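Milestone M4 deliverable, item 7.
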Amino acid sequence: MHEGPVNFSDRRESSGRSVRFIADFLKQKSPRKLTGLLLARLDAFNRISATFGEDRSNAFFNDYAQQLRTLLPANTPVIRLSERRFAVLLALDSMTTIIDIASRLAEEQPPQFQNGADTLFVDLTIGVAVYPTHADSAESLFRRAELTLNEASAKDLNFEIYRPEATQQQAAMWKFSSDLERAVKSGGIEVYLQPKVQVSDAQMVGAEALVRWRQESGRLVLPGEFVPIAERSGSIVPLTWLVFDKVAELVRSWPSPEREFKIAINVSAQVLDHTDFGPRLNALREALSETGRGLIIELTEESLISDHDAALARLNRIRKSGVGIAIDDFGKGYSSLSYLKDIPATEIKIDKSFVGTAASDRKDWHIIKAATDLAHAFGMDVVAEGVDSIEALKALDELGCEFAQGFYIARPMRADLLPEWARAYSSTVTARTLMPQREPTAAEA
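Output delivered:
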């Protein structure tokens, strides 16, 4: 048996070497015992490295690996894998004991990072698979523990036990992910556009680019179903470049706009951090500018609060280049007020969960009013998304929202249909038919 941590920290070799180590361990143990593989990830390891330096993060990991010797049964192997992961092998008599140890490590005695007099708790996520109950070889044991670790992370659990049905679900997910990657590489992703209008006069001032995946079966898959998978697999980066290219190609065939017109594109935090993002964004901005149009990138609140200082520096560079920044789904996620004053956003997009009931729910009305007043105080415009009725549009007009989009105005449409829709819209819809005229306020008079 091995004592203390075994270091397999080379990223390229850690999985293969650890599987061989596990196989040797299984051969040595008593056939009457179970072997639990606890595959664990320190969720703050990269943040510790970025904040305090790589030496401090490595020292923390080594100290914690030694600490585990006091928390685990004697002679329990602890295998350090690449970056922030490690594995523990438990040869015990019962499944309950294995689960109890996983629970204690993840929930009752989590790792602690000491910074001077401050003690910081570090989240630990564990996936558990047991030999021979869940797997009949070292390779399948490791693979299923890894699957369970990923499932625990996706569910925001401290630890999870392998479930046989998870293998079938994962196989289906892998196929879905592989099909998506092929669609991105072959250009099989369609760009739809949803018009955005100015509330005061009902004139179209822009559109939001939305992706659709047309599968070989003909089924049209909406972004809510495949974008999260693209983010987990890394396909979100080439997917975004594909959208950039398609938008640039589309606008070249459009006539020059008669008034200001901006196209908004959703950008994931992963894409924002990519080294190619700046050059590709500038190329798209220039392509749109040549046709007399502007560009806005839409970011979620989650992407804005992650690594705040670094994100803020990137956003300031983007704004200096002339690209607008919209905070998408405003109010839906984290507390927005704490960071709104720092973000160089040009507009906020009020989440549709508030907009849909603004005309009938006074609480939602006041939420939108407060967000609108605050945005205006910071020099930002307000876009209401999810407008699905004339009543909602009237409420937004009263609240002072500048722009709106939603099914009442137009559903997302194939990008090549937007010019035709715009011509029909201009000739048949006036501010008076879409939005009843209101008396000007004292400030407007």
